[in-house]
Amino acid sequence: MLDIRFEKTTAPKEIPDEDNPLVFGTIFTDHMFLMDYEEGKGWHDARVVPYGPLSLEPSAMVFHYGQEMFEGLKAYKTEDGRILLFRPDKNIERANRTNERLCMPEIPEEDFLAALKAVVKTDEEWIPTKEGTSLYIRPFLIATDPFLGVRPSNTYTFIIILSPVGAYYPEGLDPVKIWIEDEYVRAVKGGIGEAKTGGNYVASMKAQVKAHEAGYSQVLWLDGVERRYIEEVGAMNIFFKIDGKIITPQLNGSILPGVTRDSVIQLCKDWGIPVEERKITIDEIYEAHKNGILEEVFGTGTAAVISPVGQLRWENHIMKVQDGGIGELSQKMYDTITGIQLGKIEDTKNWTVEVK
Amino acid sequence: MLDIRFEKTTAPKEIPDEDNPLVFGTIFTDHMFLMDYEEGKGWHDARVVPYGPLSLEPSAMVFHYGQEMFEGLKAYKTEDGRILLFRPDKNIERANRTNERLCMPEIPEEDFLAALKAVVKTDEEWIPTKEGTSLYIRPFLIATDPFLGVRPSNTYTFIIILSPVGAYYPEGLDPVKIWIEDEYVRAVKGGIGEAKTGGNYVASMKAQVKAHEAGYSQVLWLDGVERRYIEEVGAMNIFFKIDGKIITPQLNGSILPGVTRDSVIQLCKDWGIPVEERKITIDEIYEAHKNGILEEVFGTGTAAVISPVGQLRWENHIMKVQDGGIGELSQKMYDTITGIQLGKIEDTKNWTVEVK
Ligand SMILES: Cc1ncc(COP(=O)(O)O)c(C=O)c1O
Ligand SMILES: Cc1ncc(COP(=O)(O)O)c(C=O)c1O
């Protein structure tokens, strides 16, 4: 069992009023978890301490060579007051896959889970309860060697911070408009696209700014080699319903293996809906739309859970989906997953983990 | 003129003894330069202060989304005691191209140069003078918004730190063995390969570790699309001398436009040696080697200036170059560039900038 030292804050902050909308990712709770790593010594000094600034050498490798992993998951408070995490094991697994790709140390799974529980429990009063709200959990790992030169760091710090977040769609599900990018590339096979690390996100910003200026809220990436295969959205995986079948790009090394993606695939199978994980070209989508069989499109990710897509723009083609509205499957998927997360629907798959 | 506040250290460190070899990137001088940026307000609070830790919110965007630019250049002390920078304008230009690609603010060129001069001048006693030594200068820019969510930051800090470095080749030029990577990919057209940013370096670590384990000191990357075209080495551009001609990969968007690369091209032209900047496949190199016309191979970069390559390994082929020794052009190029840097050879191109 991970031995965690606790140092409680002596200056607790005011917990935000849930009736004012919580802007995603701007407010942080009273505590954070930290744990250090040193080559030879391993992980040590696990602690929950007051939330506050990190002190790092200007030469710390994270500032120069991008050795940083992050994850994102949520804690929910159920109506009967229990605290639930949604599939934390999947995030922990993915974190360690990222760590492996970036030559960073593995975090033992039980310790990672113990750390999540410890810090969430410490700040449990911060978990909002209003419909659609939750406590966003951001674990991250950074390289700290004070060294200029390209090689894996020998020292790291693992940190978990918490942020109460409002409903992604305060007025109920709201379809998004998506820009299909054909100039910039996010990631390529053989690269680090399947890792959850800063380099992939900074690479996406320029196209995102361009899409925003054109009135689109998100970018859908094509593959970096042929620029024809659909990859994923900025912070979501993507699903298409074509002629009754669900199709989503296969995990190919350059897209993130989403936890929500995996959950959606499992639910479709349970419901007897055929799902295909495979390569899919933008031309196929365009044809399906032309033939009137592109029935639904939705993104999947921790932040919004399910994001119905009302419009896709590719070159000069604008494809409306569901007449800009919400598809039946998108709605059912959203209701089911959020229902399980909030303990309202029976969790037959053991997806939720209670924090006691 | 940039208005810089100076706060001198009250606890100067001991300047390392030059007779003990200085390990690259491990020792830092007494001062550093900092300057902050805020959207709407612009750059402000330029200052030279004692070298010490940075204090950053755990939610600072640099830890999560990889918005970080860095540069690398050197200051030299000439025999008559002058301080010279080598082509700082090229690093400044490149920094701003990186900033543009990563949606970070431009740093005015004159201010950047004034900052370099101010901090180098402050710590001029730290510039080593022994043959081959220099003061390595590391400017870098990091995103500081305390915000979780993928978009460009609104606040940044620009920092310059200094590190005295020993001779890269204390015993004179020493040929390196290079591993040609055919599994992992560093960057791809449309991505951020030509930017000097952490994401590209962390992406390179796994192949580098693999190469080291096999006894090779550096990785040579192939393009991410066809995996046939030569790109660059981990922290160097690459040149081939084939049948009397110099060939180097053209700037294609996925390789770093090296300052040393540019200098080598200009010198070759001056010397009447034909230079081709073009696409070049690994097969072409293999054939040239087989036909006995692969005369020299060398890498170019700020750290080592010129690195003769004595051996290339591609799949199961081992190609020896110059019988593992140093080519005539590599040696002449090294002597000329370092001669200009140290003020021993007349600088007819105005490459050096004196710090007064
Ligand atoms: C690039 C990218 N793809 C997909 C996802 C969706 O993954 P998950 O469902 O695990 O949140 C995310 C967000 O987490 C992401 O950042
Ligand atoms: C990836 C990469 N390529 C090439 C270079 C060489 O560039 P320069 O000659 O400007 O140092 C460097 C190092 O600076 C580098 O990091």
Automatic annotation (TrEMBL), chains A, B:
<dbReference type="GO" id="GO:0052655">
    <property type="term" value="F:L-valine-2-oxoglutarate transaminase activity"/>
</dbReference>
<dbReference type="GO" id="GO:0009097">
    <property type="term" value="P:isoleucine biosynthetic process"/>
</dbReference>
<dbReference type="InterPro" id="IPR005786">
    <property type="entry name" value="B_amino_transII"/>
</dbReference>
<dbReference type="InterPro" id="IPR043132">
    <property type="entry name" value="BCAT-like_C"/>
</dbReference>
<dbReference type="InterPro" id="IPR001544">
    <property type="entry name" value="Aminotrans_IV"/>
</dbReference>
<keyword id="KW-0032">Aminotransferase</keyword>
<keyword id="KW-0663">Pyridoxal phosphate</keyword>
<keyword id="KW-0028">Amino-acid biosynthesis</keyword>
<dbReference type="InterPro" id="IPR043131">
    <property type="entry name" value="BCAT-like_N"/>
</dbReference>
<comment type="pathway">
    <text>Amino-acid biosynthesis; L-isoleucine biosynthesis; L-isoleucine from 2-oxobutanoate: step 4/4.</text>
</comment>
<dbReference type="Pfam" id="PF01063">
    <property type="entry name" value="Aminotran_4"/>
</dbReference>
<dbReference type="InterPro" id="IPR033939">
    <property type="entry name" value="BCAT_family"/>
</dbReference>
<keyword id="KW-0808">Transferase</keyword>
<dbReference type="GO" id="GO:0009099">
    <property type="term" value="P:L-valine biosynthetic process"/>
</dbReference>
<keyword id="KW-0100">Branched-chain amino acid biosynthesis</keyword>
<dbReference type="GO" id="GO:0052654">
    <property type="term" value="F:L-leucine-2-oxoglutarate transaminase activity"/>
</dbReference>
<comment type="pathway">
    <text>Amino-acid biosynthesis; L-valine biosynthesis; L-valine from pyruvate: step 4/4.</text>
</comment>
<feature type="modified residue" description="N6-(pyridoxal phosphate)lysine">
    <location>
        <position position="196"/>
    </location>
</feature>
<dbReference type="InterPro" id="IPR018300">
    <property type="entry name" value="Aminotrans_IV_CS"/>
</dbReference>
<dbReference type="InterPro" id="IPR036038">
    <property type="entry name" value="Aminotransferase-like"/>
</dbReference>
<protein>
    <recommendedName>
        <fullName>Branched-chain-amino-acid aminotransferase</fullName>
        <ecNumber>2.6.1.42</ecNumber>
    </recommendedName>
</protein>
<dbReference type="GO" id="GO:0009098">
    <property type="term" value="P:L-leucine biosynthetic process"/>
</dbReference>
<dbReference type="GO" id="GO:0052656">
    <property type="term" value="F:L-isoleucine-2-oxoglutarate transaminase activity"/>
</dbReference>
<comment type="similarity">
    <text>Belongs to the class-IV pyridoxal-phosphate-dependent aminotransferase family.</text>
</comment>
